[in-house]
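#structure-requests
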Amino acid sequence: MSGEATARTATVQTVSSNGTYSFTKPNRETITLLAGLGVEGDVHAGVTVRHRSRVAADPTQPNLRQVHLIHAELFDEVAEAGFDVRPGDLGENVTTRGIDLLGLPTGTLLHLGAEAVVEVTGLRNPCAQIDGFRHGLLKQVVGRDEQGGIVRKAGIMGIVLTGGEVRPGDTIRAELPEGPHRPLERV
């Protein structure tokens, strides 16, 4: 049975993209999502993997990381620990507010704005580059749960099913998948 996940109105806070490899991505007025590819003009757009470590391992892998989304609430959390992190700083394309991205199951469809639809594929696996950006930040975005399992908080990844423009202020609607929900794993 499909469901809708909305406790309050979820919105796009910021959109970001970069045509060259760098850790951060500049904020934009709008981004265009392209079905099967990702963010138009972004270095990580493509049918096959674009992240350097993934390309080195196997350049023919499907790109399950076309769009990177982070919840703005993470920036609020790390600010309490003394870290100044702003939208785009961690390389995300879409910064959200008001939706529990990390609590979504694999296969959730995120309707962004009027047209775009992104299918959630998994968790971003935070890397040591985060500490290069702000020393000690990696420990803030990777933790442990009560059972000792790793908790990755640096956002989620997805693929573009339906293209369209996305801009700050757009609403986000989550459509949960049918059947048993599979928790997010790193991709």
